[in-house]
Amino acid sequence: MAVVAGGGPRRAARLLASVSIEHGSVSRPKRVLLWVMGIFYIVAGVNHFLNAQFYLPMMPPFLPWPAGLVFLSGVAEVVLGIAVLVPSLRRPAAWGVILLLIAVFPANVHIALHNVPVFGAKEGAGIWNWVRLPVQGVLILWAWWYTGPDALPASVVPTG
After folding, report:
1. pTM listed for this prediction
2. Are 116 and 129 in contact (CB under 8 A)?
3. How far out from the chain centre does Cα 42 lie?
């Protein structure tokens, strides 16, 4: 947590405690999906540290320092997953998620082109590797949903 909050576990706890579920301009389904998205990225990011070996085969061979990039993407996912839950950080964090998804897209193309076995599988998933590609677009649209002015609490939205 110290890496995430930039000030230790206490600061991280205060940051998470400041997370609010605004009831003004954001619909209930959008709030619920925001939490699902945030938790999804936090869990996925932590998994990069716990099971880095599952992510290494995804790395295209032309990228240097595969283990470092797996670690870096894990850090980004945890930080962005937490940040989308903080109202004042939500919009830039959502744009960060979009940029992260674009950055990892070449790895998904690599998986599809070469039928790379991932997540400890013995063989590639065949056609399902290609299905992952448009799913990336859905994840980008999901994050984009939180880039508009209604992503902020009413007290932060500029008026007139």
Report:
1. 0.78
2. yes
3. 7
pLDDT of 15-37, one tens digit each?
A: 554 554 444 566 889 999 999 99
CA-to-CA distance for 65 and 14, rounded, in angstroms?
Answer: 34
Q: Per the structure block, which two tokens stand in for 81?
A: 């997953």
Sequence spans of domains, the chain: 28-146
pLDDT band at 124 (very low <50, low <70, confident <90, very high): confident
Q: Are 75 and 3 in contact (CB under 8 A)?
A: yes
DSSP 81-146: HHHTTSGGGHHHHHHHHHHHHHHHHHHHHHHHHHT---TT-SS--THHHHHHHHHHHHHHHHHHTT
Q: Phi and psi at residue 86, in whole multiples of 5°?
A: -100, 115
